[in-house]
Amino acid sequence: MENKLSREEVLHVARLARIQISDEKTLEKYQYQLKKLLDEIDKIKEVKNYDEDFLIAPVDHEAKPTKDETQEEITFQDVKKNAPHTKGNFIEVPVMIHE
Amino acid sequence: MSNYLDLSILELNTLLKEGKVTPLMLVEEAFRRIEKDPEINAFITLNKEEAIKEAKALEGMEVDNVLFGIPVAVKDNILTKDLRTTCASHILDNFIPIYDATVVSKLKEKHLIIIGKTNMDEFAMGSTSRTSYFGAPKNPWNKTKITGGSSGGSAASVASRMVPLALGTDTGGSIRQPASYCGLVGMKPTYGRVSRYGLVAFGSSLDAIGPMSRNVYENALLLNVIEGQDDHDLTSSYHEIEDYTRFIGQDIKGMKVALPNYFMSDVVSPSIKEKIEETVSLLQKLGVTVERVDIDYIENAVTLYQIIAMGEASSNLARFDGVRYGHSVDDAKEVEELYLRTREEGFGDEVKRRIMVGSYLLSGENAKVYYDKAMQIRDDMKKSFEKCFEKYDFIIGPTTCTTAYDLAQDTDDPMRSFLDDVLVIPVNMAGLPGLNLPIGFSREHMPIGLHIIGKAFDEARMYQFASFLEKELNLKLDPKGEE
Amino acid sequence: MDYKTTVGIEIHCELKTNTKMFSHGTNGYGNTANSNITAIDLGYPGTLPILNRGAILLALRAALVLNCEINQQMYFDRKNYFYPDLPKGYQITQARTPIGIHGYVEIEVDGKPKKIGIHDIHIEEDTAKSAHSATSSLLDFNRAGVPLIEIVTEPDMNSPYEAMAYVEKLRELLLYADISDCKMEEGSMRCDVNVSVSKTEKLGTRTEIKNIGSISAIGLAIEKEVEHQIVVYEQGGTIQEETRRFDEKAQKTILMRVKETGNDYRYFPEPDIPMLVLTNEEIESVKKEIPVLPNERRKKYHEKGVSEINSNKLIQNRDLSDFLLTAPEELNLVLASNILLGDTLAYLNKNRKKITNTKLSMKKLTDVVKRLEEGSLTSKILKEIFNDLLETDLSIDEVIKNHGITQVNDTDSLNQVVKKVLLENQASVDDYHAGKERALKYLMGQIMKETKGGANPVLVNKLLIEELTK
After folding, report:
1. How far is C266 from chain A (nearest CA, A)?
2. Whole-number Å distance between alpha carbons of B77 and B92
3. pLDDT for B156-172, tens place per residue?
4. Do C192 and C142 share a domain, yes or no?
5. Is C430 on the interface with B (CB under 8 A)?
6. What is the predicted pLDDT for the residue at C469?
7. Contacts of residue B363 in chain A, CB cutoff 8 Å?
8. I want to staple C10 with a disulfide (CB 3.0 to 4.6 A). Which of B6, B369, C192, C313 is the partner?
9. Residue C287 forms part of a structural domain
10. What is the pLDDT of residues C202-218, one digit of tens each?
11. Chain A 15-74, CB below 8 Å of chain C: which residues?
């Protein structure tokens, strides 16, 4: 079995994660590294589950909803402290193109 | 030059009450120690100005609790209002939180003084703290060695006695493993015991905040402060608030302890197994029953962890997109380009690998094949732990397979960071509390730790057990003393 | 064989809550951009969702109104995809355990009832709003996190008409149950339509028409899309699964994008929200809070003889319909609805008021209707005094007196008036005898004029006929 993923496979998962891979050397490194990780992960297929129950998070209590009341609002001044690009009262992003 | 920070917290508390020591003296001493040894690289951001201001403000105030005025370090994935919080990542290297994490509010309420934000693996992804954008911290016992990770900076800051206490976080061993490598007590509390609000999420169903300290008692003191239900975190538990020190000092005779065979298998180095065997003999001498057991599915924990932690991470880190905060490329022509380039520049290799794999695992049919299956096995594993706890008070084993290794070792192996945590990951999967207790040293005089796993919400008994053993062992755990 | 049209509809409705689904940020439409926001709504690092109890109860109410089975143990799921209006990079929704499943909405097709199956109704959060220019887009996070329910039908509709009837019916139900204000123009109700055509029993490939702006546009869009698909098939082509939008000006649907294989949406259970449990008691108490729904009201109107026109008008004017809910059983709803939908409605519209903000109590209305029935009050006098009834606390008698009107019930004095009017209007008397019914009305009017409207019309009528037939 091949010990690396194809370029296309790596580029596909990079695309899913919205990560650009600009240089060939990095891409090649990922071909091997991701393959190694995925081979380990594939071992799950051989593990036999005892029953169909599943665990999302180890929490025994139920979710407690809270009151429908306004609290803890922040201002746009707060937002501006960290926002990379703003215009007036808005956060600005480059043109959004529907895929 | 004063050396108050070598005293125990109880001693400091007495001196503070008597007015013989002021919070300012402690804070200044902490910064002096940090500045004297920059090589350790324990901190990403120091809170010097604010800490001194806060210490001065405490002067003349009543010393109303045992941690009043005590310096504390906080891992840099826990939000501190107006104090830069980077997660050791380029993508957040200018991020100024607009609110405090719940645990940070609790520290401030009790008038602990935050000295700075500690170094770590980028977004807590790693087992060595080498994935930090700010360079790896170094092990105070031997500066050519790793601190472990991801809470490596927190571990280094306490081990080098810069601060007596630090907060770490543990998604797959990130408190206990560096505590073991650095000779500290580190507790990962039961999932839900401590609020996660304000902790930058990595693996949401695994993440826990916990205390790191020089000894068991002081660890319990810090857990006393940070625990408790929080309306900001729906997963935080409604268990009653308790005093975790209350059983400390009580005998452990008659307790029953399980030692899983897997924890003594070939994955563990012989010198560590030897130390565990010694500890088992000591426990037996103290009247504790130790029995070998098998716990189903624990050998699958790393595989489960990779699926669940990477899946959740790929989702949790999607928000770092250059739109609302953090690093952002300035000249993107359209949004997709903004995403692709911001994230290429902002994240390091380990993080990229994990979120790529995580995205793959959740896409299309893979979600069923991998994620659903992992959630089923996870439930099975939790149940097999519960079955074991029907008969035993604790489960023990080594915390790590080896002692801290060289900073230059295995930097290119993507599996290494997972294999380092093979013994501690099962605890996060089951949501159980786990504690590292130093039990001795290797031939190279690097610390070795015992991993104590308790039943859910049984932290107080774990402290009792660990403290009793700690007293019997009576180790010298200050690396300065060895120089 | 002809093509059979199949339509399924997905509707997103914003819930009428004070705050957002997973935060305590204000749910406000039309406020200053980025003024109703919390750290959670912006997806700040370290934030975790809370659950808005008000939103959950409204979603539960919706599931009950749509006759759904309730999932009493619910999880939430994350739907992961990248878009600037999605702050966390995922939307919290319910993919595995929607709050309601297997429901239905009953519509009428050609006078016969038809059930449109509801596949599921689930809770989710809205995205931020974006405004686009040629060079950039601006984001307003006020809407980010506003509670939504998505209502997904089975592919049970077979014509544009049925689709429109369904949406109208659904809208009416959600409005009446106080779940959403359902304003399509403000986006608090948004409609996506799935359309396919087929000559066989097997469903054809469907296309999705996104975000249609009005109920009439839904009908048109389906009609045009069906035409489009049939043309494609007739020319030997195939339909692809794709997303289209309806261009109202061009009167046609336009391709937006071909659907991906679903790979780009990545789902997994939301670990930050433990299981949410709805108890039987909670469900029962929500049931009790549901206002009387239109069908039940229509049934009552029908039983009481109210015309269909008035019945529909009442349903459209929720305020008046609600007012009638407090009516005593014996109230003549025909007369009452005439009064409410006539002068009252005109007054309310003119003054932009609600019936509950006027002085017209149910007791007053009942009194008015009773007097009209007896004939002790004429509609003419009612018109004259109506404003005072709406605007003052005075009783009907007091109002009448204030207007200088005295009701004449005295037979003797009325007889004199009748005789006087007949003498003065011989021509009309002759017309009456010649069989012209209209003459009687004219004479009545003259008598009322003579008494300044104060005469008891029933009594006048009786006396007038007696005198004429003498």
Report:
1. 9
2. 10
3. 999 999 999 999 999 99
4. yes
5. no
6. 82
7. 16
8. C192
9. no
10. 999 999 999 898 999 99
11. 16, 18, 56-57, 59, 61-74
Write down the ipTM of this complex. Answer: 0.96
Instruction: Kindly state whether residues C360 and C396 are assigned to the same domain.
Output: yes
Q: Quick one: C180 and C153 in the same domain? A: yes
From B75, B110, B117, B138, active-site residue: B75
In angstroms, the first-to-last Cα distance of chain A is 36
Domain ranges of chain A: 7-46
Do C23 and C111 fall into the same domain?
Answer: yes
- Checking if the pLDDT of C375 tops 70, the result is no
Q: Is A50 on the interface with B (CB under 8 A)?
A: yes
C78 in Cβ contact with C91 (< 8 Å): yes
Q: What's the CA gap between C110 and C96, in Å, rounded?
A: 37
Domains identified in chain C, total number: 3
Do both C356 and C435 map to the same domain? Answer: no
- Does the domain at A7-46 match CATH 1.10.20? Answer given as yes
Structure tokens at B95: 């991020």
Which positions 257-296 of C are in contact with B (Cβ < 8 Å)? 261-264, 266-269, 271-274
Residue at B254: amino acid letter: G
Query: What predicted TM-score, i.e. pTM, was given to this entire model?
Result: 0.92
> Rounded to whole angstroms, how far apart are CA atoms B301 and A14?
26
Q: Which residue of B has its CA nearest to C91?
A: B315
Contact list in C for residue A90 (CB cut-off 8 A) is 33-34, 131, 138-140
> If you count them, how many residues does chain B have?
483
Neighbours of A (≥3 Cβ pairs closer than 8 A)?
B, C
Q: Do B353 and A45 touch (CB under 8 A)?
A: no
Q: Is B174 a catalytic residue?
A: yes
A29-85 per-position pLDDT tens digit: 999 999 999 999 999 999 998 889 999 999 999 999 999 999 999 999 999 999 999
Please, are residues C421 and C443 in contact by the beta-carbon 8 Å criterion?
yes
- The amino acid present at B401, given as its one-letter code, is C
Q: What is the pLDDT of residue C40?
A: 98
Range of the domain at C365: 292-402
Mark whether C198 and C103 lie in a shared domain: yes
Indicate the residue of A16, A70, A90 with minimum beta-carbon distance to C138. A90
Average pLDDT over residues C57-65: 98
Closest CA to B275 of B483, B451, B156, B478: B451
- C-alpha separations of B188 from B66, B172, B381, C304 in Å: 22, 10, 18, 71
Report residue C444's pLDDT band, with 50, 70 and 90 as the boundaries: confident
Q: Which of these three, C229, C262, C282, is where a domain ends?
A: C282
Could you tell me which chains touch chain B, where touching means 3 or more CB pairs under 8 A? A, C
Q: How far apart are CA B173 and CA B210, in angstroms?
A: 11
CATH 3.90.1300.10 fits B4-254+392-482, yes or no: yes
Q: Which residues pair with B453 in a beta bridge?
A: B395, B434
The verdict on residue C111 lying in a domain is: yes
What's the pLDDT score for residue A99? 42
pLDDT of residue A1: 62
Band (pLDDT 50/70/90 cuts) for residue C135 is confident
Q: What is residue B367's predicted lDDT score, i.e. its pLDDT? A: 92
Question: Cβ contacts (< 8 Å) between B91 and chain A: which residues?
Answer: none
- Contact between chains at B362 and C90 (C-beta distance less than 8 A): no
With contacts defined as CB-CB under 8 Å, which chain C residues touch B335?
83-84, 137
B281 catalytic per annotation:
no
Pick from C166, C3, C10: which is nearest to C98 by CA? C10
- B87 and B56 Cβ atoms separated by less than 8 Å: no
pLDDT score of B483 more than 50: no
Question: What are the chain B neighbours of C139 within 8 Å (beta carbons)?
Answer: 323
Q: Are residues C180 and C323 in the same domain?
A: no
- C24 → closest Cβ in A61, A62, A71: A71
Check if the beta carbon of residue C211 is closer than 8 Å to that of residue C191: yes
Q: In whole angstroms, give the CA distance from residue C259 to residue C244.
A: 10
Residue B75 appears among annotated catalytic residues: yes
Specify the CATH number for the domain of residue C424. Answer: 1.10.10.410
Q: Are residues C74 and C10 in the same domain?
A: yes
